[in-house]
C-alpha cells in the first residue's frame, strides 16, 4: 500500500503521527454504503493491546485478533461492516485469516501483525470475492480517519471519533456501536491510536481501566455482542513517554467521548438515562443493582413516556443481587426525591422528565459503601422498529 | 354478608361446592371498571396454602397475606385492582389490615382468616373511603366467579378462569396477569378453590409443584412484581380426599390453563414463543439459558418481525450462566434446524415464522442431561405503547 503522512489537521485515528487509514465501498452492504476500512501503524514501534467481548459465542475475527495480539504487537487493524462473520464455523475463521493474509501481503507485514474486526449480521458467510476486492481497494492510505470511522458504521447514524491532544503527543480514536450495548463492552468496535511511547502492558492496563468506567457502563439493551473489540496501538513516533497517569487519562478521555457518542446514537434512543446506585455492600453489588434497573423493560418504557413511575424502579431493584433494606430504599429523579424509605413522596408524579437526559439515583438504604452507575436509554417504538426488521 | 349456594353451572372459583364470590365497582380505577372482588370459603374446612413473589420489595398485601396464611387456614380472599398498595410504608400495611378487618366483620370471621390481594399502580396510597365502601358493597355473595375474575383485571383484555371437574369433587380458579411476568410468578394474582379434602401441606406441595412448571416458566419481560400471589383454599365440602397424585394433577391443570391464558393475553403480544434448552449440565442451567434468550430484547424484536435471525439466539445464550460448547450449539425454529455446530444451515433465513406460535429449541452441545423451557412473547410496538403510558 502507498504510505502517506497524515496532515496536521487530521482527527480521529489519523491524528497521531505515523498512523494512516483508508476506507472503501467493497459491496458487502446491500445499501451500497462504505463497508471496509484499515488503520495502519507506520511505526517505529508496534505496541498494542486489546479487550474483547465476554460472550462465550465469539466471532471468527475475535478469535483471530486475540491470537494476533498475544505478543502485544500489531501493525494494522482491518475492518468490515455489514457482516459480523460470526457463527460461521471453520469457514469463518478461514475467511478472517484470508483477509488478514491479503492485507499483510499488501502492507508487507506478517499476518499476525494484522487484527481483523467485523460487524453486522451474524451467521452469514462473508462474500470473500467482494471482501478481498475491498482489501485491494484499501491500498490507498491517507489521513482521512473520518472516512474510516464512517465505513465501520452499521445502524449508527453518525461516525464516532475522538482526539486527545497532549504536549508533544496525541491520541486518536474511532468507534461504532449503537445497539447490543451491554456489560463487557457494547456491540462495539473501537480503534485507538497514539504516537506516545507505551509498552503493551501499559496500554492493556489503561484500556482495561478506561473500559470499566466507559464502555462497560453502557447498557442499552442487555445484549452482548459476539464481536466486541477495542484495540489500541502505540507507535512511539512522538518520542514522548507519558507517565502511567497521563496515558490512562488520555485513554479515558477518548473512551469516554466515544461512549457518550454511542449512548447518544443508541438504536431508537429518545432519552439518555444515567442510573447510579449507592447504599449497598460493595461496588459490584451496586453495579448489579444499577444494571438490573437499566435492563428492566417496564422502567425503560416509563422513561420513553417521561413518566416518573418510581414504583418500577423499586420493583426492578427488588430482584437485584445486592444487599438492600427493602423498607428503606430512596429514589431520586433528576435530583428530586420521589421515594424515601420505600414510600412515595408527595408530588413525585409531577417531577419533570420531559428532557432528553434523565438522572436516576437509588439509595438501597443499608448504609454500605458500595456505589456504581450505568448509562442506558429508553425503550422506544424506534428500537422495536429497527430491531424487528434488521436481517429480513 | 349474605351467603348463597353456588349454582351447579358455576365456573371458575365458584364451581366447587361451598365457595361464593362477589364483585363490585368501588371506584378505584379512573376507568370506572369493576375493581374489587371477594372469594369466600363457606366450609366446612378452611385449609389453604399460598406462594408469593420472590421480589424483596413486596407490597403490603403480600406481607399481610403471608402472615394470615402462616397457620394454613383461610376463609376468604379480598381483591382490589387499580392500586397495588406497594411502597406505601406503614400506611400501606395499615390500609391492608383495615380492608381485612372490615371484610372479616361483615363475614363474621377473624381478620387472620382473610387474605388480601392488590394489583395496579405502585406507590399510590389506597383511597380508603372508596375501598371500604367497596368492601361493604361486596356483601352480596353469589356464584358469579366470572364477575370476580373480571374485577381483578388491570391491562388484561379478558378474564381468566379455569375449572377441573373430577369424580365427586371440583377445582376452580381465576387469575389475572399480563405483564411483568418473570421468574417466580408473573404479575399475577391467582385464587384456586376446591371442595376436595386436602391438608394445608398437601395444598402447599401441589401449588409449588404446579407453579414451577406453569407460572414460573412464563417470562414476558423479565420484570417481577411486588404483588404476585397465588392462593389455594380447600373446604372438603365434597367429602372426597383425592390422592396426592390426583390433587397435584388438578392443581397443575388449572394452573397450566391460567398460564396459557396469561401468555396469550400478555401486554402487546403478537407471538407466543416457547424456548426449550437442552445439552447442558443441569435443569437449572438449562432454565438460566432459556430465560437469558427469552429476555433478550434483540431476540424478542426479531420474533415480532417473524425474522428467523438465529444469530441473536447464539449471541444471547453465549452470556448465559450454563455449560455449553460454543462451537457446537444447535438451534431449531419450529422444528427446522437453522444452526448446527454453531454454524448456519443453508436456507435458515427462509424458515417461516409468520404464525402466532413459535417454537425455539436450543442444544448447547455438551451432551449433558439438563433441560428446561420458558414461555415468552415478542417485543412489539404495543408493548412499548402500553407500558410508556401506564401511570401518567
From TrEMBL, chains A, B:
Q: Which reaction does it catalyse?
A: L-glutamate + acetyl-CoA = N-acetyl-L-glutamate + CoA + H(+); N(2)-acetyl-L-ornithine + L-glutamate = N-acetyl-L-glutamate + L-ornithine
Q: Which residues form a coiled coil?
A: none
Q: Where in the cell is it found?
A: Cytoplasm
Could you tell me the keywords of this UniProt record?
Acyltransferase, Amino-acid biosynthesis, Arginine biosynthesis, Autocatalytic cleavage, Cytoplasm, Multifunctional enzyme, Transferase
Task: Provide the E.C. number(s) assigned to this enzyme.
Answer: 2.3.1.35, 2.3.1.1
Q: Name one GO biological process term.
A: ornithine biosynthetic process
Family annotation (Pfam families): ArgJ
**This protein's name:** Arginine biosynthesis bifunctional protein ArgJ
Amino acid at each position: 500500500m502507498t504510505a502517506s503522512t497524515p496532515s496536521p489537521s487530521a482527527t480521529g485515528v489519523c491524528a497521531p503521527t505515523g498512523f494512516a487509514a483508508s476506507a472503501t465501498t467493497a459491496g458487502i452492504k446491500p445499501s451500497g454504503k462504505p463497508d471496509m476500512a484499515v488503520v495502519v501503524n507506520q511505526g517505529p514501534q508496534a505496541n498494542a493491546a486489546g479487550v474483547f467481548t465476554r460472550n462465550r459465542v465469539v466471532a471468527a475475527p475475535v478469535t483471530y485478533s486475540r491470537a494476533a495480539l498475544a505478543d502485544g504487537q500489531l501493525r494494522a487493524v482491518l475492518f468490515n461492516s455489514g457482516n459480523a462473520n460470526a457463527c460461521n464455523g471453520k469457514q469463518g475463521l478461514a475467511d478472517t485469516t484470508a483477509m488478514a493474509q491479503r492485507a499483510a501481503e499488501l502492507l508487507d507485514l506478517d499476518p499476525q501483525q494484522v487484527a481483523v474486526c467485523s460487524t453486522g449480521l451474524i451467521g452469514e458467510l462473508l462474500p470473500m470475492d467482494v471482501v478481498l476486492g475491498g482489501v485491494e481497494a484499501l491500498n490507498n492510505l491517507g489521513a482521512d480517519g473520518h472516512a474510516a470511522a464512517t465505513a465501520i458504521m452499521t445502524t449508527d447514524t453518525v461516525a464516532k471519533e475522538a482526539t486527545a491532544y497532549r504536549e508533544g503527543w496525541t491520541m486518536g480514536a474511532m468507534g461504532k456501536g449503537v445497539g447490543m450495548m451491554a456489560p463487557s463492552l457494547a456491540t462495539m468496535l473501537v480503534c485507538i491510536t497514539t504516537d506516545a511511547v507505551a509498552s503493551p502492558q501499559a496500554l492493556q492496563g489503561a484500556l482495561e481501566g478506561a473500559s470499566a468506567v466507559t464502555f462497560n457502563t453502557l447498557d442499552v439493551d442487555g445484549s452482548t455482542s459476539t464481536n466486541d473489540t477495542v484495540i489500541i496501538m502505540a507507535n512511539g513516533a512522538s518520542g514522548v513517554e507519558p507517565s502511567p497517569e497521563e496515558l490512562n487519562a488520555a485513554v479515558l478521555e477518548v473512551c469516554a467521548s466515544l461512549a457518550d457518542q454511542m449512548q447518544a446514537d443508541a438504536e431508537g434512543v429518545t432519552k439518555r438515562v444515567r442510573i447510579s446506585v449507592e447504599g449497598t455492600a460493595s461496588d459490584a453489588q451496586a453495579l448489579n443493582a444499577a444494571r438490573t434497573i437499566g435492563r428492566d423493560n417496564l422502567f425503560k418504557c416509563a422513561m420513553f413516556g417521561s413518566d416518573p413511575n418510581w414504583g418500577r424502579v423499586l420493583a426492578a431493584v427488588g430482584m437485584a443481587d445486592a444487599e438492600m433494606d427493602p423498607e428503606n430504599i430512596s429514589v431520586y429523579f433528576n435530583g428530586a426525591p420521589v421515594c424515601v424509605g420505600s414510600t412515595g413522596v408527595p408530588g413525585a408524579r409531577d417531577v419533570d422528565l420531559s428532557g432528553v437526559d434523565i438522572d436516576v439515583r437509588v439509595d438501597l438504604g443499608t448504609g454500605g459503601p458500595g456505589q456504581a452507575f450505568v448509562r442506558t436509554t429508553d425503550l422506544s417504538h424506534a428500537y422495536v422498529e429497527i430491531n424487528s426488521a434488521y436481517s429480513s
